[in-house]
Amino acid sequence: MIKNVFKNLGALEPFEIRNSSITLCLGAPSTYAYLELMKYYNPEIVLPFYGNIFFALLFLLVGVSVNLKSKFILQHYGWFVFWSTMAFQHYLTYTAYLNDFSLDILLVTYVFIFGSVLLLSNRILVLVYSTTETIHLAYAVFISDLDVVSESAILLSTMAIFVCSFWMMNGFIRYRKKMEVMNLSLEDTVKKRTLDLEIRAKELLDKNKDLEEFAYVVSHDLKRPLRNIYTLTDWLSEDDDEQLNATAMKSLQQIKTQVTQMDLLVEGILNYSLQADNEQAMKEVNLHTLVKRIINNISSENISITMEKKLPRIVCNESQMQQVFWNLLQNAIKHNDKEKIEISINYEVNKVRHKFFIKDNGPGIGEKYHTKIFELFQKLRSDMDGEAIGIGLALVKKIVERNEGKIYVKSAEGNGATFIFSLPKNN
User: 0.70 cut: is pTM over it?
Assistant: First the structure.
């Protein structure tokens, strides 16, 4: 325990080490210059042991020693400061005695006492420093030839300086302790809140997984009876026309249409709910090859899709990018009112983002609907056929934004539409 107390006496905070180092580095030339000035203006002054040179070099050495980054020096730097300052203080006391306590020596002695107490900033070290200096000074005054008045003035002024500097240092220490307590309290609060956030994040992650599983199970369970209904209506439709009248055939066709719509809706909900992890299966994908494969699957005599530029290779989730281009191209085809559907795909790149353009020659979209079309289950026309469920563009928006991208549309009624989305470059 005593060893730990002794060790902690020499321990300083990083900012204290930095301040002490700067003070000693500045004090080294200042000490030398002041003592040299005293010698210049008072040639009879006595400076024993070349103290002006020795202590200037000592302060400089202690000041720059922190740059060595030695663990031992940094852990015990308070002791280096203490012994160097106390040695110089006793040197000044001895010098003052040799020079009959001349005013110039007493002045630098008092200044150094005041500065040293503030520099040490440790009550025990300051107590040792002040006690030894008081004893030394009292002894030097006692064996000198000074009169009683001068002796009392020197001792009282020294004690006043000690009391004043100790009072200031004590206030600084109390303030520092208060700040340490506040910092510890703040750290505890931050740790507690961080732990709470981690717990909540885990709970949200678990709930999100539960919702994904629920969506998958529900979608899977819903699709089974839908397939059965569709199969039964298909069998009935294949029967001879004599057995089924026109009204029944029409009803069966309507059932098949509604089942198809419901199947698409369930599939859309499933796709939308499972697009949760944009980091899953990330790899370098050749978008030109991917989009070309999609074009080959959906092109026909009345559908022309062209790529104006070669698309790049990017790091992404391949299935998600396929979903984006597939949905945008299908959207351009479904809502097109022209006999000859023309779609063009273009590409631009800058320092930070890839930019893709899907342009069609369809009826266009009014400006007031430019935001609405990206919302879930939103359709601009209620008379669309069973293939329009209002999920495609919402899914595209979700995928693009989860990949830190943006998507928007430029269009006016009667002038076609251009869907534009951007993705960050992988540096």
Answer: no
